[in-house]
Amino acid sequence: MDRREFTASLVAGGCAGMCVDLTLFPLDTIKTRLQSQQGFYKAGGFRGIYAGVPSAAIGSFPNAAAFFVTYESTKSFFTSYSSTNLAPITHMLAASLGEIVACLIRVPTEVVKQRTQASPSLNTYRVLLNTLQEEGFRGLYRGYGSTVLREIPFSLVQFPLWEYLKAMWWRRQGGRLDSWQAALCGALAGGVAAFVTTPLDVAKTWIMLAKAGTSTASGNIPTVLYEVWKSRGIPGLFAGSIPRVTFISMGGFIFLGAYEKVRRTLL
């Protein structure tokens, strides 16, 4: 990847991240409160729907930029395989590495954002201070493992499917694909991936919102999934799936569409 491509991926990824996170933030708040252990209404219901938005605004640009720089760099490194049957594996590997890097930025902002969403009486700054005072810097990375384990399966579905749909549409149109068509491919790929990985998202939410020192806060995903299933059954494992699928389908349209548009403009 040359310098121009690096800059294009960095800027396009950051712009796409800010567009989707700020546009669809209310849906994300509703999803978090539906998944909260204390229940939707006790977590705030429809009140303070933009609680936690400063954290999302601060983290969205560097988070998405880090993902796409890693994703495109990995694809570029394995470019000799991109036109063969190994292309989906290249996309899976690129997406997985992108998520691992991006989560170093995403998780602290996600912890603060979700705790603010579930406690709308507190502002972002107060939640950040409380987390640092009670748990130290490590508290900001509570749920890092569960987030990575949620994001990697998600990306293993979304990005190879997105690339496949784009390639298929590109071939059918004789080598042409508009940004809005790439956005539609992103919406479909994102919706499928979102539904399949909802149980992992529920586990991540429980871990991030749990009180320090509890068994849930330890971050053992199989244990948390079993706890959710035992107390709430299958519906509990898929709590928030409708707003999650809606959010990520719309997000996939905006995120991947904006990324393609900005990147093509810069290149």
Task: List the SSEs and their pairings.
Layout: H1 3-23, H2 25-35, H3 53-77, H4 87-118, H5 124-135, H6 144-172, H7 179-196, H8 198-209, H9 221-237, H10 241-266
What does this structure look like?
With about 270 residues, the protein is mainly α. The protein is built from ten helices and no strands. The model has no long low-confidence stretch (mean pLDDT about 85).
Give the key terms.
single chain; mainly alpha; globular; repeat; transmembrane; mitochondrion; transmembrane helix; mitochondrion inner membrane
Distance between the termini: 12 Å
* Radius of gyration (Å): 18 Å
What is the ordering of alpha helices and beta strands? HHHHHHHHHH
What structural category do the secondary elements indicate? mainly alpha
Query: Stretches where pLDDT falls below 50 for ≥5 residues?
Result: none
The total of beta strands comes to 0
Mean pLDDT: 86
Subcellular location: Mitochondrion inner membrane
Family: Belongs to the mitochondrial carrier (TC 2.A.29) family.
Keywords: Membrane, Mitochondrion, Mitochondrion inner membrane, Repeat, Transmembrane, Transmembrane helix, Transport
Pfam families: Mito_carr
